[in-house]
Specification:
The radius of gyration is 22 Å and the shape is elongated. About 65% of the residues lie in helices and about 15% in strands. By secondary structure, the protein is α+β, with helices and mostly antiparallel strands. The chain has six helices and three strands. It starts with 7 loop residues before the first helix and ends with a helix. It has one domain. The protein has a three-stranded antiparallel sheet with strand order 1-2-3.
């Protein structure tokens, strides 16, 4: 008696089709709900930039989503003051930074689409990935979107100290992000999340086996 096996390529085609469908759905979601996500997440970004600014002579005045006065769509806008020293009462300069909502929503779309679509044999492993993913995602956003909002602040501080035309590490990192580094950070974040979740799930199974013995 012979059993017919499905062609090897059928599973691969189904997986490719599923990933393609997920990518199209993510792009559609980003195009439709990008501004809504940015508005909902603006308090998170405000908390991030204020945390990073702690201990520096920088005051974050506001972070909000506003219409883009330089082109179409909306932007995540940060208004900040810069002092010469943290003890100064009056700011010496102020700055406005903008990140388009399309760039803001790209990070979560890439991160969560890859993470949620990654195959998992057990529901516990998938839940562990989601829990770990929130922490890793927050770190990734702090390294990307928050830095893109704040990268001018160190340069302004150096200019107030008399440094002409400063080129800070923050500026280098921002240019890396604009050149495709944002996508790289998100993908690396997914890989780190998968590894940590797999380690934690395996540790939980080992502890459960020891208890049952």
């Amino acid at each position: 008696m012979t059993t017919e096996c499905p062609p090897r390529g059928s599973a691969l085609r189904r997986r490719v089709g599923l990933w393609t469908l997920a990518a199209c759905a993510a792009l559609s979601l980003g195009a439709v709900g990008g501004e809504k996500y940015a508005r909902l997440a603006s308090p998170l970004y405000a908390a991030m930039v204020r945390l990073i600014a702690w201990g520096h002579p920088w005051e974050i005045v506001a972070v909000d989503v506003v219409p883009n006065d330089l082109g179409p769509g909306s932007v995540l806008k940060m208004v900040a003051n810069v002092r010469r020293t943290p003890a100064d009462i009056m700011p010496a300069a102020d700055t406005v930074a903008r990140v388009h909502v399309g760039e803001v929503v790209a990070g979560p779309l890439v991160f969560w689409t890859l993470l949620l679509m990654w195959p998992a044999r057990r529901i516990t492993l998938r839940l562990c990935r989601v829990i770990v993913g929130f922490a890793v995602f927050a770190l990734a956003e702090g390294l990307t979107t928050a830095v893109q909002l704040m990268h001018d602040l160190p340069a302004i501080s150096e200019m107030l100290e008399g440094v002409p035309d400063p080129f800070t590490p923050w500026e280098r990192w921002s240019r890396f992000l604009e050149g495709g580094g944002h996508f790289v950070i998100d993908v690396c974040g997914v890989v780190v999340t998968l590894w940590i979740a797999r380690y934690l799930a395996g540790m939980g199974r080992r502890n459960g086996a020891e208890i049952s013995m």
